[in-house]
Amino acid sequence: MSSVLERVNGVARCPYDPRHNSTAVVTESGELYAATVIDFSGRDPVIYRSLGGMPPLRTAQYNSKWLNEPHFISAYDIGLFTFFFLRENAVEHDCGKTVYSRVARVCKNDIGGRFLLEDTWTTFMKARLNCSRSGEIPFYYNELQSTFYLPEQDLIYGIFTTNVNSIAASAVCAFNLSAITQAFNGPFRSQENPRSTWLPTPNPIHNFQCGTIDDQGPNEGLTERSLQDAQRLYLMNDVVQPESVDPLVMQDDVRFSNLVVDIVQGMETLYHVMYISTEYGTILKALATPNKNLQGCYLEEMELLPPGVREPILSLQILHSDRSLFVGLNDRVLKIPLERCSTYKTETLCLEARDPYCGWDFRQRRCTTLEDSSNMSQWKQNITACPLRNQTTNGGFGAWAPWQPCNNDDGVDGVSSCLCRSRTCDSPAPRCGGRNCEGSTIEVANCSRLGNEKKH
């Protein structure tokens, strides 16, 4: 940054304490939507609109039913709404304290109420996100940690974990915007008084849209009754269900932290490749697909730090123009190429990696991306099952390399001019305690000093 165009007061736009979390998004029309805490103690959480041409609005102050000790994750400007993803203490949970993950939304053309809900959202709604392992008694991953929005597919990917005081477990679930809309079009859940049970309440405006009440927005023609409804009806009864019955990825004994997703054109279809950071400082590369044979497939685990070093990954970002993944750590940023096909040296390694970025080019006799292939008819992928991971694999030799002139010193007759060829133990390489290849890795022939063919 070489110049400062304008200075803006940070109150209600970012927290006083850097340890308090916040998220924000700027819309195309210039409004800033911030989800943060706006007091020194961190006890006044708010979803607040400022800047731009719309009047400032906020969530109800000191009302734990609207926001109850929230941890804000992300915000997105989508269509007529601004969406916020968060986790918070569940006010509707009657027995003990538990945390639920939520999606909340407000209309971008909301201008607040009159007499009731002045300077306050009249279109604020929130719904619970369900990410759970199916079964007679489902296992819930209640705490949202990170999200990623794929606008091309109208999908929101989310990382969910167990509570920090529970056994570590993590999962990735994907939600379609249509499922989120369906929950917001359903009934509300409300409470008549502080001692009563939360019960389903019919939605007075089914299929509500910000622009459908009047061309000038949802606030024109608001009555006292509708403002009273907006004040008490904000929690949806229906839960937002994910795209698949079970999470796309599940793993015990580890906590995921951040997530980004790349869309990759394979030989036959599009693949969603997820990059998932862990609390240990590693990155898991996994497939998101409805194909049951490929669900939960881990393609590889990238070790970014020296052995024995653990450091949390703070952020992940894909820069498509550079075809790179940027990894944010405490004191540095790492850059990793998305396409690493050159690491697979043989046809077997290339195809068994099941990497959507890569395929074997028979004409070039190397592993390449689809864009770098000489001809698509000469390019092959084999993404039919998950790659083998953490299984004992004995080593196998690859093909011999071509003969090459070389010098050989046998220790008796001195140096001879010979032909040599070599092979490597990489088809497959030994893994997880598997045996190394048995046999020679180099052959020597046609040594001139001896006058006849000599092999070792």
Please explain how this structure is put together.
The chain is mainly beta and 456 residues long. Among the domains are: 23-253, Methylamine Dehydrogenase, Chain H (7 Propeller); 392-456, TSP-1 type 1 repeat. The protein has helices at residues 177-185, 224-232, 347-352; strands at residues 23-26, 32-37, 45-50, 71-78, 81-89, 99-107, 125-128, 132-133, 139-140, 143-150, 155-161, 169-176, 188-190, 199-201, 249-252, 256-265, 270-278, 282-288, 298-303, 315-319, 324-328, 333-337, 359-361, 366-368, 379-380, 404-409, 415-422, 442-445. The protein has a 4-stranded antiparallel sheet with strand order 4-5-6-7, with helices on one face. The longest helix is centred in the middle third of the chain and has 9 residues, at 177-185. The chain is elongated and about 105 Å long. The N and C termini lie far apart (65 Å). Residues 452-456 have low confidence and may be disordered. GO terms for molecular function: chemorepellent activity; semaphorin receptor binding. Residues 1-338 form the Sema domain. Keywords: Disulfide bond, Glycoprotein, Membrane, Repeat, Transmembrane, Transmembrane helix. It is found in: Membrane. This is Sema domain-containing protein.
